[in-house]
Amino acid sequence: MPSRGRWGVILDAGSSGTRLHIYRWKDPEKALKNASKKEHGSLPRLVTEKKWTKKIRPGVSEFGDKPSRVGPEHLQSLIDHALKIIPEDKIKDTPIFLMATAGMRLLPDSTQASLTNQICRYFQENTDFSLLDCGLHIQVIPGETEGLYGWIASNYLLGGFDKPDSHQHGKGHHTYGFLDMGGASAQIAFAPNSTEAEKHSNDLKLLRMRTIDGSASEYKVFTATWLGFGVNQARESYVQSLRELYTPSAENELPDPCMPKGLRTTLDGDQVGGHRTDVLTLLGTGAFDECLKLTHPLLGKDKPCRDQPCLLNGQHVPAIDFDVNHFIGVSEYWHTTHGVFGGEGDKAYDFKTYQQRVKDFCSRDWDSIVPKLDTRKKVDAKIAQEACFKASWLINVLHDGIGIPRIGIEKLPAANVSKGALEHAKQQGFLDPFQPVDKIGDIEVSWTLGKMVLYAAGQIPPKSGDDRYPVGFGSNAAETIPSDFQFAGSSWHPHGHVNETHDGDDDWDLEAEDLLDKAKSRSASGLLIFFLLFVVLLYFFRTRERRMRLYGKVNALFFHRPRRPGSPRKGGGGRGLSIITNKLFRRPSAMYERVMEEGDADHFELGDVDSSSSSDGGDNDHSDSSEGSGFGRTSGLATPKVNLTEFEPTPSGSALDRSGLVVRTDSRDRLLPSSLQMLHAGKRSRAGSPTRQKSPLISPLQQD
């Protein structure tokens, strides 16, 4: 039997490692057939599981000087893992993507081309996955594209696309901004307010998606990336500034206010025990206020801005209206706020509280910090020694760079929404100008999800007359399809197209319903025959005399055989008939009935998140965002999640449905009236065996 659903494979090739993601969704035509009227305007519902992901180290960029080895030594283990998950009959219909981020961006163009060509060739020669266009499937994506995919993934999980009325921020705005910071780069993506969007229309990306009913869905988004503004690259620039600012002491040391007091490291961050004069070292002074002042120039705010307004490094960004633009921050924004400095019960980011925690930690002596490190939670010395610099860098980028209001100190803009929506949004943290997240519900926020949502949307047939609008993104130009348009990589086929792969059982809900209909039909036929036989028997044995006469003949024929005195009775092969006659002639008996219903579902459904089932922990090293970072991912000190409550019930319920096991037991002993007991006194009868019924209505897997 063919396997059900559509599948997609994407490899996130960051500088620290490559991570495999697998997603599944329903066949578009059948998804539409089963969708409610309200769901017609929703994007496809994707499913994933934690066990479907796998991360290996190092990154693809490490094979720059040995491209021929990247396949067998690096990618093959990920391919093998994917083949264990995806059904064999679906492999040829499953697209595979490998998209590299900041680590590969730092390599020369010729090295990038050599690696991507080798990877594509290896996939084509060693797998049967769908790979029609190497340039589209295997590529080094720009930071702006990574940011756009992250923006799609975040709003998809938050419900900003499908439930705009529940996410109104004022002025008709219902999407969230996206901030990402890794080791080498940082990204921003948001939809400006209508005034800024009109003023800077040429700077926006036109994003086209398609809902289940085939309607076009368009958004105009600004995206930007700052290469070199990730925490690792920023640290290198900071250390270089210390060498230019200070003259080494007699002990060959440079003061570093961004490290706890007494901590000594090399310029590369390796700890140094005791005083050494043979190598230039950094000596922590624990002066966090000074640390903030020394990291501020790295923002490049003094760089000339050719196209006003600018944020960081002289780079143009439309003005951000914090009345309606509310941002979530992932990767380093989460690790640095909720790792070493996270507190119990933290739900969002409060500048005043956070800065005080950072000051308290960074002013302590290093010798007093080491004994309290919890290696069981992976808060090791390396993480602790980097925490103060990362905190200062994040504070400067957020507040002096991007301009996020300092929650806890500055007055926040008033939200122009209804009172009911305002109270609900406040409870969920939706109206905070900035909120760091690791997961939304139980789902890790990854830009790879945004890419696959776009691909799945491209498989949906468009409404009549809308086929001129492909799914993808490009410049916000007047043309229907801009010259730089990036297609989703998928295509739709009208019903009956000769090349269409349309499996009859792609939709598991439909298959279950068909089976149930057949079961009901068979049951109805069987019941009708049984009823007719029962009526005939009632006619022939409608009087007590006839029933007793037949009982006597049957009993004499099968059971009253000669036996020696004192020998035990033997049931023999007539026991079943004895039970039947007991029933017909109202002999004593007992019946035990049991009905069992069972079902199971174990998939994460990404289209609609219910945070009430969110769990702690998780791994967030899925991209460049993980480079040189990790304490938030592994510390376990404080891991609050964005708590989202479903605004409207959906057919699938929560992101994780479990039907469970339902058992109902009914027992009943039927006792004869005393007069009939006296009638049969001296006769021994056996109770009938328990009869068991299993419900034909096995609950199907719900994955709408």
From TrEMBL:
The keyword RNA-binding does not apply. ATP binds at residues 183-187. It comes from the Eukaryota. Residues 604-704 are annotated as: Disordered. CDD domains: ASKHA_NBD_YND1-like (cd24039). The keyword Glycoprotein does not apply. The active site is at 146 (proton acceptor). Residues 688-704 have a biased composition (Polar residues). It holds the Pfam family GDA1_CD39. The chain crosses the membrane at residues 524-541. GO terms for molecular function: ATP binding; GDP phosphatase activity; ribonucleoside triphosphate phosphatase activity; UDP phosphatase activity. Keywords: ATP-binding, Hydrolase, Membrane, Nucleotide-binding, Transmembrane, Transmembrane helix. Belongs to the GDA1/CD39 NTPase family. This is Nucleoside phosphatase family-domain-containing protein.
